[in-house]
Design brief:
75% helix, 139 residues, mainly alpha
C-alpha cells in the first residue's frame, strides 16, 4: 500500500490530527464567541450536516432491514443504558473506599451514565467500514 493510498484511507484520523494541531497553534479561533462560533456551528450545523450526509448514503432497503433487528436494538439499549451505568456504579463503589477525591468520583459517575456522542459514533463507524445503518438506529 503506497503512501498516497494510505493517506486517502486514513483521511478522517489525519483530519482529526490536523485540526488538533491547528487548535493548539491558534486556540482563539474555536473559543465560545470566536470566529467559528462553536456554540452555533457545532451544536446545530455540524451535527445536522453529519446526520444528513450519512442519511443520504443509506439505501432504503438497508434501513428497512436494520429496523428488523429487534434483538440487536434491545441488546444495545440495555448495554448502553443499564449494564454500563451499573458497571460504572459498582466500580465507583470500589473506588469510594480509596482516598480518591469525591468530586472526581462524581464526575466519573456522571460520564458513565451519559450516552455516547452520536455524531462521532456515526463518523467513526463509517470510517472503519462498520454497519452504518445500525449505528443510525441505535443512537
Amino acid at each position: 500500500m503506497g503512501l498516497l493510498e494510505r493517506l486517502r484511507k486514513e483521511w478522517f484520523i489525519l483530519g482529526i490530527v490536523l485540526v488538533i494541531a491547528v487548535a493548539r497553534l491558534e486556540p482563539a479561533v474555536g473559543v465560545k464567541g470566536g470566529p467559528l462560533k462553536p456554540e452555533i456551528t457545532i451544536t446545530y450545523i455540524a451535527v445536522s450536516a453529519i446526520f444528513f450526509n450519512s442519511g443520504l448514503s443509506l439505501k432504503t432497503e438497508e434501513l428497512t432491514s436494520a429496523l428488523m433487528h429487534v434483538k440487536l436494538h434491545l441488546f444495545v439499549q440495555i448495554f448502553t443504558l443499564v449494564f454500563f451505568p451499573t458497571a460504572i456504579w459498582l466500580f465507583l463503589q470500589l473506588l469510594s473506599i480509596t482516598p480518591i477525591n469525591e468530586w472526581l468520583l462524581k464526575g466519573l459517575q456522571t460520564v458513565g451514565c451519559m450516552p455516547p456522542p452520536v455524531s462521532s459514533a456515526v463518523i467513526l463507524t463509517k470510517a472503519v467500514g462498520g454497519n452504518e445503518r445500525e449505528t443510525h438506529l441505535r443512537l
